Amino acid sequence: MQVSGEKTLPLSFPLSPATLAAMYSKAPSSELGDFLKECRARISPRTVGLPASGTPRRVTGLRREEVALLAGISTDCYTRLEQGRATVSGSVLATLVRVLHLDDDERDRLFELAVRDECAPRRRPVRKVHPQLRCLLDDLNTTPALVLGRRMDILAWNPLAAALLTDFDRVPAKKRNYVRLLFTDPRFREMYPDWQTIARSCVAHLRVEAATCPGDPELSALVGELSVADTDFRQWWAGRQPAGLRVGSKRLRHPVAGDLTLDWDTLTSPADPSQQLVIWTAEPGTQSYDGLRFLASWM
């Protein structure tokens, strides 16, 4: 699938057609262009392995045609992108992150400028946990539980969930996302013996989110970040995914409580369907049940 005026991208990330369609947007004519110009101006041709031409350069940093060459797109396509006259796909954005050597904040800025927000205002208020879910969460003293919002953002948790999974207070609020932790936090990842199954289910959940709210810039930024950071995510996002689950069981390898097999379930808030309470339980009399009680005694 191609963007109008765009050649096949040999260096692009293998995002699915549905993902590309979801991430199409009209580029803001000035902000995106200015941002791209600033990014290419600070990169020398030598840094990216381009040979010296031997002729004086009239621009600082990379020329438009050089960025286009490195990104595997036509010069005309990239020029129209900077001028705000072209639509842009998620694969092009992910490639430009690599070509322009963008850090995390710059990557987020690129996606924010390039993706139209169809679901909510660009500047969103801090999401607050619904009062009913907060009451339930506070009452669960011997059951690990947390509240997930859109994109599987972690909105709240009880002490036992932090003891079981990770100290969420130490995770910056902007990075507090269950899928991000699964793919980028080595300790979080190693805790799950069945990591691949769980991770693929989470990718499937994000795919549903993308279909429900195709213009969500925060979701697009998250997908772009994880596509650049993790090969498995990139491949799974482009391929067929199993259906996302709302109930099931998970095996965990905990440094204090030992090996646990826990059943999990999700309760959706009728007042705000975007928020879900996720709880983990164990069959009474089992080793996992005793392990949770032992973990609770440490708090």
TrEMBL record:
Q: Which GO terms describe its molecular function?
A: DNA binding
Domain HTH cro/C1-type, which positions?
Answer: 61-107
Domain of life of the native organism: Bacteria
CDD domains referenced in this protein's UniProt entry, alphabetically: HTH_XRE (cd00093)
Q: Which SMART domains match?
A: HTH_XRE
Instruction: List residues traversing the bilayer.
Output: none
What the entry lists under PANTHER family is as follows:
BLL4672 PROTEIN (PTHR35010:SF2), BLL4672 PROTEIN-RELATED (PTHR35010)
The name this protein carries in UniProt is Transcriptional regulator
Write down the species. Streptomyces capoamus
Starting at the broadest rank, the lineage of the source organism is: Bacteria, Bacillati, Actinomycetota, Actinomycetes, Kitasatosporales
